[in-house]
Amino acid sequence: MPFGLLKYGLNSEYPGKHHFTPATELKRHYDVVIIGAGGHGTAIAYNLAKYHGITNVAVLEKSYLGGGNTARNTAVIRSNYLTEEGVNFYRESVKLFNNLSNEFNYNVMMESRGQLTLAHSDAAIRSFRWRAEVNQHMGVRSELIDRQTIAEMVPNLNMSEDSRYPIMAGLWHADGATARHDAVAWGYAKGACDRGVELHQLTEVEDIEITQGRVTAVKTNRGRVECGAVVQAVAGASSVVAKKAGIALPIHCYPLQAMVTQPYKPILTPHISSPHVHVYVHQTSRGEFVIGGGSDPYPLYHTRATLDQRETLAAASMELFPFLAQARMLRQWAGTTDMTPDYSPIMGLSPVENYYLDAGWGTWGFKATPICGVTMAELVATKKVPDLIKPFELERFYRYDQINEAGATAASH
Amino acid sequence: MKLLTCPLNGQRNISEFTYGGEYHPMPDPNTTDSRAWAEHVFFHDNAAGVVTEWWCHTASSFWFLAERNTITDKVIRTFDTSEIFNERVDFKVPDAAEKQS
Q1: What pLDDT, in 10s, does the model give residues A115-158?
Q2: B96 CA to chain A: closest CA distance, Å?
Q3: Annotation: CATH topology of A24-73+182-250+342-412
Q4: CA proximity to A121, closest of A79, A158, A169, A76
Q5: Which of A248, A297, A308 sits opposite B19 (nearest CB)?
Q6: Could you read off the pLDDT of A55-114 as tens digits, one per residue?
């Protein structure tokens, strides 16, 4: 090891390789154009190239790889949802996440430290029992635990009965995890580009050409590109991009704010979430506390941070972990969430032929990245909607058949 | 702290207000089919730019309209609903619904 380090140090050229070579010229035609090079877009490209042999693919990104909501989410992975459709979908996603570093041969820093959701009311305990039953029935590790178990599991948690909302019980989800969100996008992009997919950054789609109900080309700031199919994976700008294809979506965009403290020694193992005080907290492997879960009270496409949310998040996290009162904040930021009326995503076919939607990712997008890549690639390659994502089709709103996902992130309810 | 001007109560802290959704006229329930009704209920514009929307001053339950830019978060103006609703809105059960039941 020291010799290896010395070799690195004395080498005049840094021997490390770039992860991948970004494409230079836009071709005139691609079989598939994917709009958005976040986790989802690159995951779809990766699966198309690796498992379906479709490599004439361009991923168009108006900014840079993984620079949107992929970089702004709080990197939480879990599958303890409430609806059958949601649990099935996210269970498969967690399985794929567990093997993702091996799949890429690239470390995504997956850490399965579990997730604990806190109940501060009888109503919450009832709903957690329901969730635990649904989860266990569907093969997800999820159980209701009492105060004593919580106190042993998280010794720093404020278990006082004199606090404003005393902790009464918890929903323990052993499959809960975090991963490095940037690395997920980088790993997918690397794997896709190695197989011939072209990643075009700073390439913004300005218009989408539709002829006789079929998408035929996209116009970008770098020229026109003909395409056999288009997938939009632009969480946070879904309505704006879909509108270019003449598609209306049942989405409202709200900023979701989070912040991160200075690093501490490792003292908190699981991810802690409290729907009641509207906050979730976990300690990263670097030692920082990530504090998230503040949705702005009205829709906005701006990712500014506000003092209101900082106060709310600080107050809520201090109620759970009083020692955080001493913590200094390093950063506060926002991501734009696509909120759907039923807190479930919108995936699959659109009213335009060969134009596929990967939208409505609200606060549940990062944790769906691998399974979204698998299912959307299968859809694009075979033109058949995989059973796993059939319930999430846009058409459900016209049938008044929503999937009410009350197990979505604490922030938005 | 962000301020919003209520047409009734004047300039107040935005935390005193509740956002009430996009303003979009209701189609006639008697002539609208189920598909168009779904669009009215669920499918909103979600525009990046200037939008007209409902707001309520929570403390006084006063509803009004605002024009706001959703990219810059600047409120352009707030105004009384009488600018748009200049005749009485009748909320009786639509004839089509009575026929069904």
Answers
A1: 999 999 999 999 999 999 999 999 999 999 999 999 999 999 99
A2: 19
A3: FAD/NAD(P)-binding domain (3.50.50)
A4: A169
A5: A297
A6: 999 999 999 999 999 999 999 999 999 999 999 999 999 999 999 999 999 999 999 999
